Amino acid sequence: MRNKLNFLLLYLLLIVPAHSQDSETRRLSMEEAIRLAIKQNSDLESVRLDVKRSDARVLEAWGYAMPSVDVSGQYMHFIDKPVTFFPDVFLYGFMKEIDSTIPKPTGKLVPVSFTPGFTASASLNVKQILFNGAIFVGIGASQVYSNLARDLFQVKQVETVTKVKKAYYSALLARKALELMHSSLKNAEDNLKNVQLMKDQGIVSEYDELRASVGVENLRPVVIQSETNFNLARDALRNTIGISTKENFELADSLHFENVDASLMERAEDLVQDLNPNLSVVKRQIELNGAIISAERSNYLPTIAAFGSYQYQAAMNKFNFSTNDFYKSSQFGLSFSLNLFQGLQTYARVQQAQLDKRKSEEQLNNLEKNLQTALHSIIGNLQQAKKRVEAQEKTVEMAERGYKIVTTKFLNNSATQLEVNDAQLALTQSKVNRIQAVYDYLNASADLDQLIGRLPSYVIEMND
């Protein structure tokens, strides 16, 4: 018996703490949710890699303007030497001095080889571009491209922060709605208990009890639906952040009204023009199009380069090289090249680049108009939602007061169950309208932050 108790105690010590640790719930604030999304979002990481790639392209562009240095070496052994054919009449005079018995020329071709059996060489070659329009324009274009990649990263970052904010606000709204439904159900159940007590005392009729029961049962499916909506909102937030489905979390913040600075709304138009990330991307694209036009036009210009080489070489009929057998040679020079005609290819490419720039300028004009329209809509939504929040605060106070009055009157048998149900419905509806107004205001403020490209300070610190 004692062994069984000891085994049970050991099981509780080892298994139960591990289970409680696995089911530990994480409290997730808005700031922590945004931080996690910035670190874990796959799309954002992909754009971050594009920024690094663009920096590498800048370095590559500078490399074309720097000198190129090549070292090469070669060793050759001719197993079968190449020959050159000469008429024997050309060789007769030379060979007769060496060998008097050589036959007279007949006009035939005689194979002669001047190639040594073994050769070795080593060389150092240097080339420096002195002038090339495409290279120098390409350096500037690569820097513009790098800035464009950073602007695209800013767009994705602002977009990610906005998505997390809206998903978090939606989860807070769903949780608050669930709390309201639970509160309404509790009020209805308390009212049903009071009605049942009063019916037992003969104060109210069976019809009043039925109305109170129906009110309770009508709220139960609403509570279940609210629980489902809350779970769906939490899952949407989980997916937006990138949290594992195995990790439990609860919302640490609450849905409360946060007033947008009035001065920010007054300066919103200027801020959009200066800071909107999508606007910066299109402006940077126009700048890049201009650099491409310059690069294509540079094909009309010449290329001037300096070059030099230093070489050691040796040739022997036997493989017995020594340092004295190598001879050095060196040279230096300038090269000049200018294309005179390419079948109008350069002209056509310049025209295409100019049309691309005009297209980007049209996109800029349309985007500026759309941003102004969006800004006016967001400011209108903020103002409307703020008025609704202020109005619903008073409405909730009046609905709570009305519910207390009609409940007291019902207990004193001077009000009907129908009036209690109406007061309960009015109170619930006023609270729902209030949290919906707060949610709409917070959503509009998130849209405003995205429009002006504003990021939380802690996100900017993460980038640094």
Q: CATH fold name, please?
A: Outer membrane efflux proteins (OEP)
Structural class: alpha+beta
How many angstroms does the end-to-end distance come to?
Answer: 64 Å
How many helical elements? Answer: 12
Shape: elongated
Mean pLDDT over the residues:
84
- Mind describing the biggest β-sheet? 4 strands, antiparallel
> How many whole angstroms does the radius of gyration measure?
43 Å
SSE map:
Elements: H1 2-22, E1 26-28, H2 30-40, H3 42-65, E2 68-77, E3 84-87, H4 88-98, E4 109-112, E5 118-131, H5 133-200, H6 206-241, E6 249-251, H7 262-266, H8 268-275, H9 277-297, E7 303-316, E8 327-337, H10 345-411, H11 417-451, H12 457-463
Helix pairs in contact: 2-5, 3-5, 5-6, 5-9, 5-11, 8-10, 9-10, 10-11
Structure write-up:
Helix content is 68%, strand content 14%. The protein has 464 residues and is α+β, with helices and mostly antiparallel strands. It has a single domain, classed as Outer membrane efflux proteins (OEP) (Up-down Bundle). It is elongated, with a radius of gyration of 43 Å.
Question: What can be said about this structure in brief?
Answer:
The chain is of the alpha+beta class. It is 68% helix and 14% strand.
List its salient traits.
464 residues; alpha+beta; Outer membrane efflux proteins (OEP); four-stranded antiparallel β-sheet; two-stranded parallel sheet; 12 helices; disordered N terminus
